[in-house]
């Protein structure tokens, strides 16, 4: 039972929602605008997305072992520093890497089945490979996107545009222009999730030489970047209403927009310096991302 709980912690199941919801959004959009819905393709595609995220999370636990060990010496955070399962010795470190490779391999099999059995289109595998390459090498050497300053942008792409566009493509065989408009606020909000989640690990990442965006810019400049992305997410959501998103989305989104604005103000005021407040900010920040995607889904449903 202890090992089962350890694998569940290592898998970070609650964080799969930020990838699954955009995938569902693309499917809902394809159904509402094109009348296309293949339930088997939806299920296989969702499993593929989950497997890629598992590969990313498992790989992060293995490759970020030093940073997470340093971070564990501070007050633990639910949103940063990994699961600490490997640091506690409950599972061998190598198990995380093996699970990452296994998950990636299964995701590739699903991509092959979708393209050649369900004939979802020539771009199915290329799109999948982009997600797998970006996810696996987010932490993995020798590329290790997280240390290049591009990791956060790749997260915005792979948790914003990519799942939305791929799910629409798998159902409809093309990508509507509305997909691009809706993916921008989703991508900007997940960018902010990653950026704010780097604050609890800032000291550990800096000591370990993890050159992510926050380490490169510093916490104060990071707050300005956060505010720009937050305001950008609000702006592009409103702009998407003029591109074909049902107007009812606005009423669904208004509470989310209010939370986003409060978070932006608090981050600019430096409230992230208090560890307990930062924990609450990180939690509310994820809700902004999920709420943005959910507002689109419910508006079309």
Q: Assess the beta-strand content as a share of residues.
A: under 5%
- Main beta-sheet strand count, sense and barrel state: none
Class by helix and strand content? mainly alpha
Question: Cα-atom Rg, whole angstroms?
Answer: 19 Å
Number of domains: 1
Q: How many distinct helices?
A: 13
Overall geometric form: globular
pLDDT averaged over residues: 94
- Report how far the terminal alpha carbons are from each other: 40 Å
SSE string: HHHHHHHHHHHHH
Q: Count the beta strands.
A: 0
Helix content: over 70%
Runs with pLDDT <50, length 5+?
Answer: none
Describe this entry's structure for a reader.
The protein has one domain. The protein has 13 helices and no strands. The chain has helices at residues 2-11, 17-34, 39-63, 65-72, 93-116, 124-136, 151-172, 177-197, 202-208, 213-217, 219-240, 248-268, 275-300. α7 runs antiparallel to α8 (177-197). The protein is globular, with a radius of gyration of 19 Å.
Question: Keywords, please?
Answer:
single chain; 301 residues; mainly alpha; 13 helices
């Amino acid at each position: 039972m202890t090992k089962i709980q350890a694998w569940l912690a290592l898998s970070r199941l609650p964080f799969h929602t930020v990838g699954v919801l955009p995938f569902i959004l693309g499917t809902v959009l394809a159904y509402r605008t094109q009348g296309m819905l293949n339930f088997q393709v939806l299920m296989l595609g969702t499993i593929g997305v989950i497997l890629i995220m598992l590969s990313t999370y498992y790989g992060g636990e293995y490759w970020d072992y030093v940073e997470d060990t340093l971070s564990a010496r501070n007050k633990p955070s639910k949103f940063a520093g990994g699961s600490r399962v490997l640091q506690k010795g409950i599972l061998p470190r190598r198990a995380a890497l093996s699970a990452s490779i296994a998950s990636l391999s299964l995701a590739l099999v699903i991509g092959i089945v979708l393209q050649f059995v369900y004939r979802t289109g020539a771009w199915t595998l290329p799109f999948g490979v982009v997600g797998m390459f970006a996810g696996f090498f987010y932490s993995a050497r020798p590329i290790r996107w997280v240390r290049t300053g591009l990791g956060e942008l790749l997260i915005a792409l792979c948790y914003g545009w990519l799942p939305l566009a791929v799910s629409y493509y798998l159902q409809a065989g093309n990508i509507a222009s509305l997909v691009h408009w809706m993916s921008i606020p989703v991508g900007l909000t997940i960018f902010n999730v990653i950026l704010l989640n780097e604050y609890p690990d800032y000291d550990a990442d800096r000591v370990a030489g993890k050159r992510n965006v926050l380490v490169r810019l510093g916490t104060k400049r990071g707050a300005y970047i956060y505010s720009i992305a937050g305001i950008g997410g609000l702006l592009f959501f409103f702009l998407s209403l003029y591109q074909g998103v049902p107007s009812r989305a606005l009423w669904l989104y208004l509470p989310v927009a209010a939370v986003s604005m409060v978070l932006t103000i608090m981050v600019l005021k430096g409230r992230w310096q208090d560890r307990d407040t930062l924990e609450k900010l990180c939690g509310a920040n994820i809700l902004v991302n999920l709420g943005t995607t959910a507002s689109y889904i419910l508006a079309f449903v």
